Amino acid sequence: MTSSKPENLRFDLQVIASWIDDGSRVIGLGCGEGELLHYLKKHKNIRETGIEIVEERVAACIEKGLSVIQGDINEEITDYPDNSFDYVILSQTLQQVYEPLYLIHEMMRIGSKVIVSFPNFGHWHIRCQMLFKGIAPLTPQLPYQWYDTPNIRILSIRDFREFANRVGFTINEEVAIDSDNYYRSGKITRFLPNFRATYGIFLISKTNG
Amino acid sequence: MSEYIAHDAQGKTVGLVEKKYFTFAEPPNEMVLDSKAKLGPITIAYETYGTLDENGRNVVLVLHALTGDSHAAGYYDETDDKPGWWDNMIGPGKGIDTDKYFVVCSNVLGGCMGTTGPASIDPKTGNPYGMRFPFMTIADMVRAQKALLDHLGIRQILSMIGGSMGGMQLLQWTIQYPDMVKSAIPLATTMRHSALAIAFNEVARQSIIADPNWNNGDYYGAVKPNLGLSVARMIGHITYLSDEALRRKFGRRLQDKDDFSFNFEADFQVESYLRHQGAKFVERFDANSFLYITKAADYFDLTRNDASGSGVQAFSRAEARFMVASFTSDWLYPTYQSRDMVKAMKKNGLNVSFCEVEAEWGHDAFLLPNQRLTNLVKGFLESVYNDIQ
């Protein structure tokens, strides 16, 4: 189950992993079963921490030897002193966060670089469902019905860029990918990313340092 | 807490084990306790399982709870009908793998299972200490354990694990001897005894003290305060379970009868169970030890000298990597108390993991076979072991 080779790591996580420097301090918010942290610990010798709310996933992480705390990311993040980490990762969770602005500010407080990824609501598939069928979209990346979805924040890659601009942080890296959670493969989308990419991945930091 | 619950072995046993003894603090070099009283000589009863590595890097110290003892795993002889109290966790291939780790478990100071306690002979009088035994703290218990490890030539502890009062001892260890402890696994425990926990202990103590046979602690060689001690144990057992556990285990079912007896015999199964637990307990435990040890647990408060009361200052001395676990139905040391501890560790930048294990059996859950807990312990130990090799 645990991937040790980069090609076994989920594609979006491969992109994130490529941005992480060796030996850095990394916290994964909503880290799931710790796939990315485990990979980074093994291959990049990071000092890892994870926050995850589901007991089974927390247990899976600890059994792998990862340091993970069971709890709500919004609450747990407040305990960390400023600049405790080199990287703060929020992978495919932003769309489920009740107060995204607050959370991103907290992430910026505890770490110098923040990595955020999310399913792109601007994907053509979604646009078509809205336009031609007139229904709330269902896609492999956003598979939930409107009445039971955990995804309460719907945003596109373009939305996130504008958000960065408005609240004032710097986008250091931006990658749009066409991939799926269930596949290990994927590709980077350079042409019309907000139309063609399923996920956006950003590395951001505080403007002026 | 309710050690010696019947349980199925989770695998192979460590086999035959032997209780050993170490005596130190011979006068005039008595140990000075937190109360400023001096105590000596002190004998510690302990057991070890597995083999100590040449480099001494595979030591796991197991710390028992209120009424436990050094007999954590294995059997004393072939006729033993039950193994040590944590045999489901400790053994070859188990959560604490004795093929890999050298496990040490000792009876706490003030205990009655081989370590010096109120039932031991006071060399000054030639009689049992009774109420002349000095008051002690969790930190004093830890000092005695340190003396034992020094004697065994152990300078580094790979990990320490303990639930309830065992967890208090290991938390104390991590701040009292920070450079010795690489990692620690506090289970179902707390940084300080809550008013609720003190309240239950006080009721239990008063039931002993109210027993005329207690005789101000001077009952050795005479009739023991068994009634008081058994009621104390009955109270304890209620706190170790939970509303849900009691409901599932007993409900309102009657014991060996179809209707009420209209007298004060045990009508309900829960009454019968508590009486049985009380009666069994007095055969193996000393009432004065119960008084002294519960008092030590009540005094325990790592946040005492911390102006904020948060424990942040206490853990500023710690260096260990932690894996904290609580249990959903534990109302004696509820999850919020573990979370407070984790928070204090995080604020100190300590490497900490935390898992709230879903369990219906209340505080006792940490002692019962639980695959989730076993896997957590196993994975964590492997990780810290690999880190220091």
Name some characteristics of this structure.
heterodimer, A: 209 residues, alpha/beta, Rossmann fold, eight-stranded mixed β-sheet, 8 helices, 8 strands, 33% helix, B: 389 residues, two-stranded antiparallel ribbon, 10 helices, 14 strands, globular
Give an overview of the whole structure:
The complex is a heterodimer of chains A (209) and B (389). An 8-stranded mixed beta sheet of chain A has the order 3-2-1-4-5-8-6-7, sandwiched between helices. Chain A has one domain (6-206): 3-Layer(aba) Sandwich (Rossmann fold). Chain A has helices spanning 11-19, 35-44, 55-63, 73-76, 100-110, 124-133, 157-167, 193-196, and strands spanning 25-29, 47-52, 68-70, 85-91, 111-119, 169-179, 186-188, 199-206. By secondary structure, chain A is α/β, with parallel strands linked by helices. In chain A, 33% of the residues lie in helices and 25% in strands. The longest helix of chain A is centred in the middle third of the chain and has 11 residues, at 100-110. With 389 residues, chain B is α/β, with parallel strands linked by helices. Chain B has a domain at 20-193 and 300-388: 3-Layer(aba) Sandwich (Rossmann fold). In chain B, 33% of the residues lie in helices and 15% in strands. Chain B has 10 helices and 14 strands. Chain B has an 8-stranded mixed beta sheet with strand order 1-4-8-5-11-12-13-14, with helices on both faces. A two-stranded antiparallel sheet of chain B has the order 2-3. A two-stranded parallel sheet of chain B has the order 6-7. In chain B, a hairpin with a 4-residue loop joins strand 9 and strand 10 (127-128). In chain B, helix 1 (138-151) packs across helix 2, helix 3 (195-209) runs antiparallel to helix 4 (226-240) and helix 4 (226-240) packs across helix 6 (269-284). The longest helix of chain B has 18 residues, at 371-388. Residues 5-9 of chain B have low confidence and may be disordered. The chains are: A alpha/beta (209), B alpha/beta (389). The interface between A and B is medium-sized, with 21 and 25 residues.
